[in-house]
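For the sake of clarity, the format in which proteins appear in this thesis is described at this point. Each number in the token line that follows is a code from a learned vocabulary of backbone shapes. One such record is shown here in full, so that the layout can be seen directly:
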Amino acid sequence: MKRQIVHVWLICLAAFAMPAKAQQERPVWSKEQAWKWHKQTPWMAGANFYPATAINQLEMWQAESFDTATISRDLGYAAGIGMRVMRVYLHHLAWKTDKEGFKQRMKNYLSIADRHNIRTIFVIFDDCWNNTYAAGPQPAPKPGIHNSGWVQDPGKLLHDDPSLMATLEAYTKDVLKTFAKDKRILLWDLYNEPGNSGWGDKSMPLLQNVFRWGRTVNPSQPLSVGVWNFNLKNLTKFQLENSDVITYHDYTDRHLIVADSLLKATGKPLVCTEYMARTRNSHFANSLPGLKERGIIAVNWGLVQGKSNTIYAWDTPMKDGSEPKVWFHDIFRPDGRPYDPSETALIRRLTLGR
């Protein structure tokens, strides 16, 4: 997802790795608890996932557009190269519109993923891309525009109407309680890139609340919010203090330096929940082997070329909709052919040993 790429990752990292304040219903996992989870969890590679037929989270989860056939097809491509984890975004509006149906579709998705031997990281909130949204049919993709239809959650609505916070609490607790002991879920990513899209510290109240709601429910899976921009010092500090295991994003060619710095500064196991942007020199070849060597679960952005248009770069639209010479994200074409067979061969070798 588009962001300011921060190159000064080492600034004040040690100051961020402080014990959490004793306010939560249950404490943040200790380093010992986090490493116990890590040792019980096999190393995995995977991708951020939405079916190729969905332009955003609402199109993925609404009843009229929930596409189990494409979900199964696309997850089959991932399983074929040994991927064993997907990061999947939810949206509170899909829940609010049809609470029981939404949770049933989550169960259906998990069943499909489980048949492919794939576990899931669910994302609750998100500060990226379009700040308004509506239920019902979603817009068509804008040709050549990266993630032209992706939507924030809750976005502008919360800032216009703070009373929405009660709905967000009910949504978060309902979802977490429903799946609190589901072993098919690897972890809960409570909030994607808080402070993005210019929100900055305005995202702090929701960030604080979603951690508190999560601790109140106390699911069996770890809770985390990925660090992504160290210029957002207050948010980053809070994320690191309150995450049971450390998740992070990095789309630079200094990825392994970043990973080593985070390991040293936090003393907790890492999960990389976003990487791989080819035109930024973030590739599988210069990231994935080193991540496996360090035991860092690795989740790249993008799986199958589709309505999200993430083969196009954040900042280089191609309004004629022609295919870029170098894909930004994504691994497969819709028919299952890999964009770059050398990449899928590398992934298969690292995940399956062949």
User: Anything to note?
Assistant: Strands lie at 45-49, 85-89, 119-126, 185-192, 223-224, 246-249, 270-274, 297-300. The longest helix spans residues 99-115. The chain has 13 helices and eight strands.
